[in-house]
Amino acid sequence: MKVYLVGGAVRDKLLGIPVKDNDWVVIGSTPDEMINKGFQPVGQDFPVFLHPKTKEEYALARTERKSGHGYAGFTFHTSPDVTLEEDLIRRDLTINAIAENETGQLVDPYNGQQDLANKQLRHVSPAFQEDPLRILRVARFAARFHTLGFSVATETNQLMKAMVAGGEAAWLVPERVWQETARALTESSPSVFFTTLAQCDALSVVLPELESSADNKLIQQALELSAENQLDPEIRLALCFAFDDITTQSVKDFANRLKLPSLFSELINLTVAHTKLAKSTMDSLSGEALIGLYEKTDAFRRPDRFLQLLKVVGIHGQVTKQPLPKTTIDRVASILEHCRKMSAREFVEQGYKGKEIGEQLRIARTQQINVSLSDD
Question: How confident is residue 45, by pLDDT bands cut at 50, 70 and 90?
Fold first, then answer.
């Protein structure tokens, strides 16, 4: 039984960037032996175990064979006879197919170190084309390592393009597309995820609603600016919808197809419906206009979501060369907080009933907004 550190941990160590998770491969062992050593089995499709102390994942070396369509269409084979090289050749990219033994010696049968030096994302073997999920993974790695100078190797892009043309990408289920997209949105260059998919013709297949994210320079600039400012992934996705005329039905269809979490879908809807209103309101601040914006965006009940919309509007203004002063955005957020502290209870105590309570609260809030604006 031999144990090797594999995949991203080895790659990131060689790149000199922080390692988030350690993954291990075990050569020459069996499930029974692993269990007898105290490892806890967790894999359903193939034997993966949690270390009894560190809880890190240890997978038995395996080979795989294509048995159907899509990323799940594989049968796996594990055996003490499976070699490290046989296990590594099934991986996606050469930079992810480097192993390190217990003494720190590297095993690199597919020249991953050379591709790290050349900053190339290159597939390990032709078996890459059997798993369409790898198209999304390559695009995500391109988004992650773009700032380090990495690019997709020409032959790998050609292979991905052939996979798309052959219909393999169409087998990707929306849930997995969203999982990879959500991760890509958190990377340092999220726009590269979309341009990489477009370059191999996959974007129109897996994310047709976001095709403009690959050729609209404003969207690309907005995504990069949002990454520089470390904004939430919900804001980054919403920015993809901030520059084109999009119907609310299209947004609904997109959200339903990918089963988007409500944090994402709600902010996209706000962005599509109210970016222009928010921009014009903040260009010419008035009490009536501002309370109208708060009400239409449900800001009194959902202030956190409204503050995200303000960030969308701020980035939108920057890339369209119509920037809003940060002081204005901060002012709108501060006034909202003052208004939210006002309670309907005082009007109930004054004897108002039914709709009168809401009307009086609105009047009081409008007065508070006007006072705040005049004080500034």
Answer: low
